From TrEMBL:
Organism of this sequence: Cyclotella atomus
Membrane-spanning ranges: none
Biased composition (Basic and acidic residues): 20-29, 118-128
Domain OTU: 157-309
PROSITE patterns assigned: OTU
Protein name: OTU domain-containing protein
InterPro entries: OTU_dom, Papain-like_cys_pep_sf, Peptidase_C85-like
Residues covered by region (Disordered): 1-40, 63-97, 109-140
Amino acid sequence: MSDGEPETIDSLTARHKKELKALEGEKRAALKSAKSMGKKAKAKIKEVEFKYEGLERDMKARHAQEVDALNNGGGAAQEAAPGDIDADNESQQTEEEIAALKKQKALSKKLKKKSAQKQKDLDRETRILTENASAGPSPRDLEISTLKSLYLTPRKLTISEVTADGNCLYRAIASQCLRLKLLPESKATYTQIRSLCADTLLQHAEEYEPFAELDHDANHPAENYDEYVRHVRETNTWGGQLELRALSCALKVPVVVFSAEGPPLTMGKEFGEEENDGELGYGEKKAVLVSFHRYYYALGEHYNSVVPLEEGS
């Protein structure tokens, strides 16, 4: 179509398609560039997507206005030789164009609303990332870094994570029992370890009862020692040093607890090997190794299993 000729609906539609295709090409190129930005890629990709959603929305709104202006300005409905279009077809096409225009406007409104929400979410995520970056390492990250650098990495050990569900201590011990082959697989479960611990607490009540925290411990809401032991056996009540000591006695192996708060704590040293005792005062290959974390989860204290580096995931 030459510059002096009026634009028809067909040529207008073709131009609109060409413009949308060109915009899509620009968007793909911008996304490709954003993906190569390393750590900043995620934020840049979102920024590009938001930008081109706005450009596409504006372009479609302009297209709708141009269609409306062409229809209201008496432009040709389509390119055709004079006399080829009868009145019925012309009327039908106009109705279809009006319906398409209404649909386009509704879509534009929907896209605008969606884009506004996306921008709100993007702003929120950007603010959180900025705040986290300026805040420095979290207490959890600092605790793990200290634990590894001071006590685990020098011994070629690492953390093997267990589920945080109130049974973490017993899951960690069960994992160690499998690793060291202290128990058959059928008995190396956290429920079996709980039962083993409870049995030991009952059998040696005179040794453990004085150290059981009753009434005042929210993790052990027991009124007496028997109730305390029942919670150990039947619920997902958290375990602590008392339970670790009992399990060391039951399994007849040292239990070593690594923590960022101080040197490793060994319970049951009397069960260690006499020959080739490690630097911790036990035969390291026969010891149960766990780590204690105060900030690992927001829920509170947590235990993980500790394994040689080559066994870590």
